[in-house]
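fold-stage: in
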Amino acid sequence: MIRMRLSGWEGIESLAFDLSGHRLEVYHRRDRTTITQELEALGLGAREIAHEVDVVEPEAAITGSASGSEERRPLVVALAINATFFVGELTAGLVSGSMGLVADSLDMLADALVYTLSLVAVGGSVARKKRLARSSGFLQLGLAILGLVEVIRRFAMDEEPPDVLTMVVVALLALAGNVLTLWLLSKTERGEAHVEASWIFTSNDIKVNGIVILAALLVWFTSSAVPDLIAGALVFLIVANGARRIFALSS
């Protein structure tokens, strides 16, 4: 999001990210107030903590970033895995009647959209990036709203419980896919912002897989669809919040 926000600005020399420490060093030749204002507009809690003048850019900031192909490789792998499991989980969720699987599939789609935006952020025009961000945000938000409406409808109609075996098997396969993604990312040099972001998203996906598996066990224990519907609603809200953040890119 930050790369896309500042992309194309004249005078921005480099961005050095420390995601674990929530810190960004901007090497620039422009008014720092405008940079701070742009970052504040993303709603990530940005604030200036230090400013130094006439600092020679450290070698780490220059050589520490990966080349374009190196940056793209982990993103392409993560995109492929998320896109594949989006299709698989969505199909299984519709067949088994599980809103948890449907919601998990949309979470996979949301991540796939973010990885696509990250790939575009490696290159391309600012206008193109913002158009893609806006379209992705609308798609993600629209699907999340439809999902929440369906959850409410199923609550009102007192639907039959979903197929527990399908929920558990598919969620475990998705979990295996996310673990594979983490393993592949572990083979990539950590520290680059795109790799770190992919690591964070995939780690969060594993938690969502756990929610679906827990919901399946509760469905089996209670013989009720309520745990599945609650899990679906929770994940749909997560997806909707992700769309809200994506909209900040296109403003």
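fold-stage: in (second)
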Amino acid sequence: MSESVLFQPAKIGSLELPNRFVRSATWEGLAAPDGGCTEDLVRLMGELAAGGVGLIISSHAYVRPEGFAVRGQLGVDRDEHIPGLARMAQAVHGEGGRIAMQLAHGGVLAGTQLTGLPAFAPSLDGGPEKTRRREMTPADIADTVEAYGEAARRAKKAGFDGVQIHAAHGYLLNQFLSPWFNRRTDRYGGRIENRARIIGEILSSVRSAVGGKFPVLVKLNSEDCLEGGLSREESLEAALLIAAAGADAIELSGGTLLSGRLSPSRAKIDSVEQEAYFREAARALKAKLKIPLILVGGIRSFEVAEALVKEGVADFVSMSRPFIREPGLVNRWRSGDRRKATCLSDNRCFGPPMRGTGFYCVVEKEGRAEEQKSGGADKEGSQEDMKRG
């Protein structure tokens, strides 16, 4: 029997990957208070590489202090972070893996109570109300564009194999793309060409910092799933503009942190019909895109993942929550055990990092605790039987 297409090597730009599986960037809540890389993060990335993931995309790392969004978030805003990030990259390479760093800025969704700074926003109007925000001036935009380039330089110096520009899920660059957030009337507002302009400028800044051969990916919403937000049609236009500006691949997601049940992390994926919930948007984009397309969003079954690549819907499949519970999922599937991922999509894994303890699969931890408790009871029972015997 021939090997599945999912386990065949593939390339993103100059980077050759051992298979078609991508670990989508995930907020682990495990970074130090100053954004530094911890040994917990180093160990986790090494486990993912050992588990067979073809490309690991690190948790969203903020490129400027006011872009810090949530506690335990990784930072790449200063050179002091490079040694810790280098240990992360080395852990992945030591297991034969590849890793890209996701570069992000919270924009209006930044944690102002954590930073003590007003949130940057495309405009004073639009988006969630009652947020402490500052409308970005042209100088602010230019500084932020430069910050992305500097962050990419740090990632390359730390030994990462590429970077991903986060322009999805309601964060700053998605806010520029979205007419719900972006009410500007200058060259960064209005038509989609203008709203995508900042991403093109960031791509240019990053290329100047890392060179033409260093892989640069972009994560993009297929739509915002918000009334008045980025539509599927405009997302397709933006994707083609981004590809023309020099991106090596696009990871397609959808929804924002404000989209309710249509968020990027939808709950209760109980059937194959519910999986890959952005597949139709991916199919439309893939028909026109000339660079690799990575699809994320609710993929849980091997058969669904394989069909997405075989049918030309996407070139790579990306998952997040399944790898929290099973960092070795890819190796399990490769061994012939093709049962679906054990992730229940209950989103309980978000609770621990919100409480400041770092993420883990709550269901699995509760199961282990119950098993240990049961095992202890069985052991006591056996000892009593021996005494009676």
